[in-house]
Structure prediction request, 764 residues.
Amino acid sequence: MKSKEMPFGKIVKTEKTGDAVVVTFEHGELEITAYTDFIVRVFADLSGIHPASFAIEGNKKTGIIVSVEEAKGCVTFTTKELIVKIRDEAKVDFYDKHGKALCMDYRGERKGAKTLSLEMKQFVEQEGHVLTEKDANHRIQSVKKLDAGDCFYGMGDKTGFINKRGYEYVSWNTDDPFPHVDSYKSLYKSIPFFITLKEEGVFGIFYDNTNRTYFDFGKESDDYYFFAADEGDLNYYFIGGNSMEEVVRGYTYLTGRAPLPQLWTLGYHQSRWGYRCEVDIREVAENMKKHGLPCDAVHMDIDYMRGYRVFTVDEEKFPDVKTLSKDMHEMGLHLVTIIDPGVKKDEGYSVYDKGMEKGYFATSPDGETYENAVWPGTAVYPDFGREAVRKWWGENHRILVEDGIDGIWNDMNEPASFKGELPEDVVFYAEERKTCHSEIHNVYGHNMARATYAGLKELTGKRPFVITRACYSGSQKYALAWTGDNQSLWTHLQMAIPQLCNLGLSGMPYVGTDIGGFGSDTTKELMCRWIELGSLSPFCRNHNALACKDQEPWKFDEETLEIYRKYLKLRYALLPYLYDLFRQQEESGMPLMRPMVLQYEKDHETRNMNGQFMIGESILAAPVVEQGATRKMVYLPEGEWYDYWSREKLEGGRYIIRKAALDECPLFVKAGSVIPHYPEMDHVSKEKDKTLILRVYPGEEGEYFHYQDNGEDFAYREGEYNLYRISLKDGQVSVNLEHQGYAHVYENILVQCKDEFINKVITY
Ligand code: GLC
Prediction:
């Protein structure tokens, strides 16, 4: 399945077909297709397979009109928004509609990396240094001209900082328990999408190749950047737009958007590896209540299974999950269980037997079921690329759903394997097509999440709550994600901001870190600072590794508990705002948690900003992420701002230093904003429809749309929702019900300016 080698030679023929043009070169063909006026795909069939995309569902071509002009050595392909010039040697250059260059193929040769002699290598390795050989060239590579001011964003969960300039990455889903640091090339997710922000102009590139792919954003050279692979095709989408926001819109148009979640899932989740029996779970629930900590879910890690067999429960330790979940529901809590893909090899265990009988597991090239090891010991791997397998897997969740389980957490789906990585030739299928691990690896978790999502939807009719660790582009349609096994390190708290923001730019809006850190032991101070950030992350869960120091909030002193409570209360107060952002995200692809640069891309100050972020358009969060710090330097962009806590009005366009004692997370609100809040609550319940508080931050006249529905199922898609238009004019607030399809309109809407309620308005 190796691809043919580049290069292409001179143009010999051009053929226009509707919205596409096929340019034939002396050695190969390029197919350029306009999906929209801003999205153009560049495709060279190098594998001879024409694989269907795993990321893109359905036909995204909008049938737009393109014009094609031919001249010697150059074909010009024009949409309403872009000009694409294809030249000899398959060089492709993109310009905006005014002819300004955006993305030019690099004309020189790659320099390649420095190589060391074998002796030198062995000498260096004596002390344990590991040197990796680098290929100067890949079979498939698209090398682009790099300009001085170019910044790069996206790429999923990669470590390091918001701007990826100067770094290289590999997309190959990787389960690595060591502390994730800036030099890591791969983590759990492969989202081969990046945004290039230029001095002037912006665009995105999505390299839809599920094989191992390589990205270099100016590490090798200041003259070029590239993306590459050794297998698969040249198959990338150029995504233009007038702003970063439009590029994100385009990428999520193509790969899909996260569906609105159930409202409770936005609440707080308490988890740990090591809740060994039912009593442990009940104790967590009771402690949350006892300490006045709002909460909506407790997670059950692998400890609940019988010998780590998926879709089983250890009846000695968890004798009655049905009653447990019923009692939890009565307390307003939900239960979420982990499900890993590895199925224990064990005759007599129905999941294994059934999978074997039907041939649902991956095999070695000789046809034998492929075996490796994960938590249950020797295990086999379901082949999720096949519809029948996904259906079977989805249906397996019935026992958990019948036991009252409310959500599923997919882990180890890179897939993890304790006895070395799966060989590249392990046989998997892409629906009917036989293929192998090297093509499927990066979509293994994606397909597992897809199966889980479909299964839960079928079984419950509710919006499925699925968490996944491994992802590919488009996984946002099925699952939210957490950043895997971070550690209780200050550097990991710092990294949480750029990592979650880049995931958002990569189409994944519903993301979070393990609050407090998963591995190693947290400290009181780190815990406090982490919940301050975590309470503002889209997904909010404290999770901890087996044998690490306990980190449930009540395991610390009174002060920590108080701080923890304060931020959980803040989160619950902001739930209607977060939910509104989710609804907007479903329509626009804009993530909830936004790097400053997404909101203020013209302001160069924001391009490398790692220490603060926006929540939607209106709230600026600047959590303290440094040990010992009691001040935070905050950049307030142009305009007027309010300190969320003190209500002090502040002039923007400058840096300020905000004092930030241990219990203070600096937050600011843009003048002219309305932020909906809930009154105090300890979990999401029907009470949510009683009272809404509109906190007003006076400024220029503004408008805000607030969305309300049952928070559970898909009825909203049939119009069962309410949409309130809130207008801010001359310091007065009025509320109009723009759309009424959900029966429970608020009983009260209170308007709060400063600390006073200024008026009480209901205008239906
Ligand atoms: C993996 C997961 C972690 C989980 C553990 C045990 O390390 O990333 O979240 O607790 O497995 O299931």
Notes: The pocket of alpha-D-glucopyranose is lined by residues 273, 301-302, 338, 411, 469, 484-485, 518, 543 (CB under 6 Å).
